Amino acid sequence: MRLFIALSLPPDARGPLTALQERLPVGRPVPEENLHLTLAFLGDQPDEAVEALHDALSTLRAPAVPLTLSGAALFGGKSGQAVGLEADGGKALTEMFDRVRSRLRSAGVRVERRRFRPHVTLARLKGGADASGALSVLAGASIGPVVATSFGLFRSHLNRDGAIYEALSVYALVL
Ligand code: 3AM
Fold first, then answer.
1. Closest CA to 39 of 87, 107, 75
2. Do the beta carbons of residue 137 and residue 25 sit within 8 Å?
3. How far is the CA of 8 from the centre of ligand 1 (A)?
4. What's the pTM?
5. Mutual orientation of helices 49-58 and 90-106 as an angle, nearest 10°?
6. Domain encompassing residue 60
């Protein structure tokens, strides 16, 4: 199973994010129910890992994370690009990221050492597509502060049209 851990976004972020998606001149928008902020990408994991991950994550007590989403973000390369907004969650977000990583380590899950670049992906572009129009729309956008009150363990189902994300479990953050 292809798994990742992400903050869920509250309704007051999803509304403005979908409005922004409608203004993008190119790209396939991420469906509203799939919008999230990735904390850790776990890649392919054996089915048995899910229970261990649930045990590790369900006992994590952490405060809700205030988020401001602003600044155009571009990811990827020739095979396909993604555009979105950078996310600023201050100390609460950095600490949440550290806590999740430490839980993953204790659960024996390998985590990448890649630098954490918090963002919300809004649309995926085909390889070679010109992202500049989308980036200029995103450059002028600012959403928040909004408060993320939960995070979850998600499964990514890859299909021909992209990925569908399924929440395997959702955990509350402390308000
Ligand atoms: O939608 P975002 O950008 O938050 O880009 C993938 C997506 O992130 C990312 O994990 C999320 C769920 O698929 N992802 C996919 N492959 C990855 C990899 N090898 C990856 N992140 C880091 N390393």
1. 87
2. yes
3. 15
4. 0.96
5. 140
6. 2-172
Give distance in angstroms: CA of 41 to centre of ligand 1: 6
DSSP 3-state of 128: coil
Q: Are 53 and 155 in contact (CB under 8 A)?
A: no
Q: Is 14 helix (H, G, I), strand (E, B) or coil?
A: helix
ipTM of this complex: 0.92
Distance CA(63)–CA(73), nearest Å, equals 26
Instruction: Enumerate residues 6+ apart whose C-beta is below 8 A from 2.
Output: 42, 43, 44, 45, 155, 156, 157, 158
Where residue 168 sits, what CATH number does that domain have? 3.90.1140.10
Rounded mean pLDDT for each run of 10 residues along the chain, 175 residues in total: 97 98 97 96 93 96 98 86 97 97 92 89 92 96 98 94 92 96
Number of domains the chain is built from: 1
Residues 23, 31, 110, CA angle at the centre, nearest 5°?
Answer: 120
Residue closest via CA to ligand 1's atom 7 equals 38
